[in-house]
Write a structure and sequence with these properties.
By secondary structure, the protein is α+β, with helices and mostly antiparallel strands. It has 6 helices and 5 strands.
């Protein structure tokens, strides 16, 4: 019986995940399978791959043919490289110890690459978050500035209000000056009247005294002439 290692689709529309299964080559894609050997979730970055390494290697050695996607997954996890090393051991090109050491070196380098990719992704996520925070802060500042500009009247309206208020201030100053003049006027008029009144009353008395003896002198003059 020809067997295949392939993906069996699960999940919802737009966010699928897959089971890695060993099935009969004649069975439909999502039909019956012989054994499930792992899972593959492409929705994460990097993609999440969970494979039973020993079972996958056993099925590959038995002749199960993986699909293109499954071959890439098995190569990523080192199953195909392990099969290649075991083939070299069988042919006598390598010893088992050499094969194990080479596979350990490969795993170490692979893990280093994976960790480096994760670090890069983490840094890029942090940078994206910082950029998003900066953009959000700028947006808040622009909204605040727009609110201030909306609540602040234009300069022309302010000048018009000042121009409208200026005549009122001038009229208030003029009315204050008029009141000061009106209050000072009675005081200035009353002062001369009080000083001139006694002089006007004494003047007639002087004239009467001066006029009274004059007729007596004129009357006595003829009498003296007659006696002479």
């Amino acid at each position: 019986m020809a067997t295949k290692i392939r993906l069996q689709r699960f999940g919802k529309k737009g966010k699928p995940f897959y089971h890695v299964v060993v099935a009969d080559a004649r069975a439909p894609r999502d039909g019956k399978f012989i054994e499930r050997i792992g899972s593959y979730n492409p929705n994460t970055n990097p993609a999440t791959i969970d494979i039973n390494f020993d079972k996958a290697l056993d099925w590959v050695n038995k002749g199960a043919q993986p699909t293109d996607t499954c071959r890439a997954i098995l190569s990523y996890k080192g199953v195909m490289y392990k099969k290649h090393l075991e083939g070299g051991v069988k042919k006598g090109a390598l010893t088992a110890e050499q094969a194990e050491s080479k596979f350990a070196e490969w795993l170490q380098s692979k893990e280093g690459k994976i960790e480096g990719k994760k670090d890069i992704l983490t840094k890029s996520k942090d940078e994206v978050k910082k950029a998003a925070l900066i953009a959000e802060a700028r947006k808040k500042e622009e909204i605040a500035a727009a609110i201030v500009a909306k609540n602040t009247p234009p300069a022309e309206e302010v000048e018009e209000e000042i121009a409208e208020e200026t005549p009122e201030a001038e009229s208030a100053e003029e009315s204050a000056e008029e009141l000061a003049v009106v209050e000072e006027a009675p005081v200035a008029e009353s002062a001369p009247v009080a000083e001139s009144a006694p002089v006007a009353e004494e003047a007639p008395a002087v004239e009467e005294v001066a006029e009274t003896p004059a007729p007596e002198a004129s009357e006595e003059a003829p009498e003296s002439e007659e006696k002479a």
